[in-house]
Amino acid sequence: MTESAPSNGQSQLSLGTAAARNLATTTKSAPQMQEITSRHLLRILPWVQVLGGTYRVNRRLSYGVGDGRITFVSTGADVRVIPAELCEIAALRHFDDSDVLAALAGRFAQREFEPGEALVSSGTPRDQVVLIAHGKVDKLGVGAYGNETTLGVLADGDHFGEQILTEDSGSWDFTARALTHCTALFLSREAFQEVAALSAELRTHLEGQRAGANRAANAHGEAAIELAAGHVGEVTLPGTFVDYELEPREYELSVAQTILRIHTRVADLYNEPMNQTEQQLRLTIEALRERQEHELVNNRDFGLLYNADLGQRIHTRTGPPTPDDMDALLAKVWKDPGFILAHPRAIAAFARECNSRGIYPQSAELHGNRVPAWRGVPILPCNKIPVSETGLSSIMVMRMGEADQGVIGLHRTGLPDEYQPGLSVRFMGISDKAIISYLVTTYYSAAVLVPDALGILESVEVG
Fold this sequence. Notes:
Helices cover 21% and strands 30% of the residues. The chain is an alpha+beta fold.
């Protein structure tokens, strides 16, 4: 073999490295995979064995409060409410006359507001239903000593003023002020009464809603348990029982599967120094676990982002996640909050807000490592929480475990050909093309046992 002359023009005096490598043994790494993450959610979830494939969450009977989000359609700058979405208003829950709903939807008037403008003012007559189609609105009230206090933040799909549908009079006890440019739809009392006068079904439905408002319930909407306390003497004690939901939520285990194929020639001839089957299987399982965590966050049926109760969702006050926003989020899961999960960019945005205020959050120990924390609750990164094209994300806080009525993971162990807990690898045979096939399967789901176990901070700006 002839080697090229060195760049300095001198002749080669010894064996070159390029030729020497032909006789050398190469030290190799195991196959690397950029998709692999820390998968904190899979680690912190308390996993519950589901032998029958379905997990039923039995709860105490609750009355529907109708606090859902309303959806709109837009044509250019014109925004209209979808008639069926009006059933998310408490007084119209379960009302199914599409013609009447369409008539009500047609009576809403669109208005635009600039930042700082008031949609309604405290003390003025409460005579309209307000739907927030787009933008962010601050609810401001008066504190005990006359100071202005923030009661909450409303955003796309929220509404207020539905009391006019079942009550005769009243005044606004808060001021709704636009934080950003807002588009809102207004339904006046007069317009509503005109539609109600033409529909006996609507009037009957509203009378039933007024009667149902007197049903005994606790602050969470659950059927009340009658008790006596502080009495003296031989008083007659109330009798009671705990009523249950007649149709409790059931979670069926979801599945993630793939077929791993390996040619017999590869498995026979190229297994040293690393076993090809093991490496192929390792990377396949890593991808399967990543997809499993993605589904636990984003699946529309059981994913945590979609299964959080609407009353447990709040919005940031200004955009970026501030310490005030994080405190409000923890107030939603104030009973033993376990963990906060956020996209890494959202965690960075929170750190910037803390830095700007001169605040230095403490850390907490988790699995032998120090992680960021807020009020002692660990903040863990989760890249499965989406970030929109406009730079909006969400932050979740949750209470964990069955014993604490929290969030749990569901799986099934003891599967045939189980390779890892809850994951099986089954040999499917060898094809006539000499390809070995393995079926890789895992079953999983997640359940929120009571609504206040999970809270979400929405509209988090991470840019």
